[in-house]
Amino acid sequence: MRLTVIGTGYVGAVHAACMADIGHEVLGVDVDPERVAALTCGRPPFFEPGLAGMLKRAVDRGRLRFTTSAAEAARFAVTHFVCVGTPPLPGSGAADLRYVEGAVDELAARLSGNQLDGREGRVLVVGKSTVPVGTAQRLAERLGTVADVAWNPEFLREGRAVQDALRPERIVAGVPTAYAEERLREVYAPLTRLGVPFIATDLATAELVKLASNSFLATKVSFINAMAEICDATGADVLTLAGAMGVDPRIGPGFLVPGLGFGGSCLPKDIRAFADCAEELGLGESVAFLREVDAINTRQRLRTVELAERLAGGSLAGRRVAVLGAAFKPGSDDVRDSPALAVAEAVRRRGAQVCVHDPEAADHARAAHPALPFAPDVTKTCDQADVVLHLTDWPQYRDLDPAVLASVVRTPVIIDARHTLDPQAWQAAGWTLHAPGRPRLPDTNKAEAP
Description:
The chain contains 19 helices and 13 strands. It is α/β, with parallel strands linked by helices and 450 residues long.
C-alpha cells in the first residue's frame, strides 16, 4: 500500500521507516530541504537506537523516499499520516495547532478536482499528533468532502521507539467511518497478524487515550518522587518502598522509579496541555491534580541543586561540579525540557564551575545552553571536581570504575539522582554517595574509634 507521512520529525521519521519496513511504499514529506536531503541518504536527524539501520534499508530497497512537495504527496497516495509537532504556545501550556492545521490545509488544497479521479479509494487523512480533544472533528469539518479523517495516536518511547513502532502494545484508531477503519486495519495488518491489538473507537476517545496515558504515567513518577521526599525526612528507603508497592498488581512496578523526574517533549508538554484543555471545557477542577504533578516533578530539580550546594559546604560559588548526562533520558539525544540540563544550568547560575558530559546529546545540549562547558569524556569532565552529579542514566555511567574516577576528582562526592549506581561499590572506592530518598550507608572508610 502507498502511504505518505507528512512531517519527518521524531514521530514522522520513525513512523515512515517502520511503515516501509513492514512492506508499504512510503513517501515522507517535510518543508525542511536539508532534513529531506539527509533522510534521502538514510541519515535520521536525531539519535534513536536502531533507526538509522532501518531507515537506510528502506531507502536502499526503494520502499521509502522523501520530498518537500505537498503536490507530489497528494498525487502519491490516498492515505496520508500527519505527524507534525504540537509544541506549547508561548507563555501557555496549551498546544500550538498551527503546524497540524497548516499541514492539513496545504494537503487539502491539492486534493480537489480531478486529482482524485482513478484513485484506489477515498482520501484518508490520519492524524498522529498529540492534540486537544475535539481537534480531529474540527479538522474533519475543515476538510469537508475532500477527505475522511481518522486519529491514530503514537505511543513511542524515546530510546526504544523502533521496537514500539514495530511491536506496539496496542494500535488505537479513531475511525468515524467504516471506510476509515477498513483502511487503517489494512495499513496495520502486518502488525495485527502478529497479535497486536487493534482498538477502534471514536475520534474524541482516540485523542484522549494519549493524553490520559501520559498523564497517568507522569502521576506515577511524581508520586514516587513525593515519597522520596517523605523517605528523606523519615529515614525510609524509597527503592524498597517502590518495589513493595509495585508487587501489587493493581499498582504495578512501571514508572515507580524515583529520581530526577520526567522531561522530554511528551510528558511535561502533554500534562500541561491536558490541564489547559480541561479548563477550556470548564472541567479544570477534574484534573487540577496535574498541576501538582508538574510542580512535584519540577521540584526534584531544585532539590538536587540544593543537595549539591549542601555537599559543597553551603555554597557552590567557585566549586567545580561535574555533570554526567545532558539528554532527558538514556538512548536519546533529545534535550528538550531535560532535567539534567536544568540542574546543570541552575548550578552554574549559583556560581559553580560546571563541566558536562553526554555520550550522544552534547551537540544539542551545547546549542541549547551555550554557557555550559562540555568535555569529550568522563575523566576530563570530572577532573578536580568537588561534586559529581549523575543525572542521566546512560549505561556508560553505570559501568564506570569508581576507583579510577576517585583518582581524578578533588573530593569523591557523588549524587546519584537516577538511583542506578551501586552504592556499595562506590563507597568501597572511597566515595560518599547520596541518592535522594535512600538512607546513607554506614561509612566503612573511616576507622572505628578505639
